[in-house]
């Protein structure tokens, strides 16, 4: 019997494809920082948003999910970007069924349409078919019930959401999670937009646990240390 072909994952998933790289180490550092961020109230549900679509939030949350899974944590990664989803492309899987299927189909709650990934402890819930009313769907009681159900099935639940400046989706979901990561792009994200994004999250009572800066210039010694692996 022929073996089932494995999905072709994006090279942007460096935590899997290049685990000894400086970038992969940075994602592991992010994982560690989150795990120690609140000892008395562990952070188990995390939302990622940004100021614009070019900030790399989906890549960031996907690599964070991989590092959590590699550390033995059962992890569910959910694409809550119901406008321009990208996680199915990063992981090379179908988007025929996903989060919208789970929200709209009561029977799907019993067996969510998870998709396996290359990491045994990580499953992916893609966006599913895109709805005409994304914000309303994400703010519905069915979405709240879905988040509650998903929380009970993993050690970590990670949500990828649209940029908060553009639409309200992230603001709708932020109060329902333990912590929010604001992803910005060094040399690209304007400071006034970053401040506005922070203010919007604070307005809805979000717990901003950190800011992730992508494409930051790497210190020469740091690059040398991680760029020359041992034989």
Number of domains: 1
Structural class: alpha/beta
H-E order: HHEHEHHEEHHEHEHEH
The main sheet orders its strands as 3-4-2-5-1-6-7
- Arithmetic mean pLDDT: 89
Low-confidence stretches: 1-5, 222-231
**Span between termini:** 38 Å
Helix content: 25-40%
Task: Write down the CATH topology.
Answer: Rossmann fold
Q: Describe the biggest sheet? A: 7 strands, mixed
CATH class descriptor: Alpha Beta
- CA radius of gyration is 17 Å
- CATH architecture designation: 3-Layer(aba) Sandwich
The CATH superfamily turns out to be P-loop containing nucleotide triphosphate hydrolases
The total of beta strands comes to 7
Strand content: 15-25%
H/I helix tally: 10
Oligomer: single chain
Global shape: globular
How would you describe what is shown here?
The chain is an alpha/beta fold. The protein has one domain (44-216): P-loop containing nucleotide triphosphate hydrolases (Rossmann fold). The chain contains ten helices and seven strands. It has a seven-stranded mixed beta sheet with strand order 3-4-2-5-1-6-7, with helices on both faces. Helix 2 (22-35) packs across helix 3 (57-70). The longest helix is centred in the first third of the chain and has 14 residues, at 22-35. Mean pLDDT is 89; it is low at 1-5 and 222-231.
């Amino acid at each position: 019997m022929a073996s089932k072909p494995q999905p072709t994952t994006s090279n942007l998933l460096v935590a899997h494809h290049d685990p000894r790289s400086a970038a992969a180490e940075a994602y592991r550092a992010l994982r560690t920082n989150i795990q120690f961020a609140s000892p008395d109230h562990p952070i188990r549900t995390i939302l990622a948003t940004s100021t614009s679509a070019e900030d790399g939030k989906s890549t960031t949350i996907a690599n964070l999910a991989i590092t959590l899974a590699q550390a033995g944590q059962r992890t569910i990664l959910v694409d809550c970007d119901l406008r321009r989803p990208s996680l199915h492309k990063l992981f090379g899987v179908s988007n025929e069924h996903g989060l919208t299927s789970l929200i709209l189909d009561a029977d799907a709650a019993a067996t969510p349409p998870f998709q396996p990934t290359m990491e045994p402890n990580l499953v992916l819930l893609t966006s599913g078919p895109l709805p005409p009313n994304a914000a309303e769907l994400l703010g519905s009681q069915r979405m709240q019930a879905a988040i509650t159900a998903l929380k009970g099935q993993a050690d970590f639940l990670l949500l990828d959401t649209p940029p908060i400046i553009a639409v309200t989706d992230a603001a709708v979901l932020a109060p329902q999670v333990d912590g929010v990561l604001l992803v910005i792009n060094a040399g690209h994200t304007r400071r006034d937009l970053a401040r506005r994004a922070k203010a919007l999250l604070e307005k809805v009572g979000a717990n901003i646990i950190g800011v992730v800066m992508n494409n930051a210039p790497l210190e020469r010694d740091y690059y040398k240390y991680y760029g020359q692996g041992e034989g």
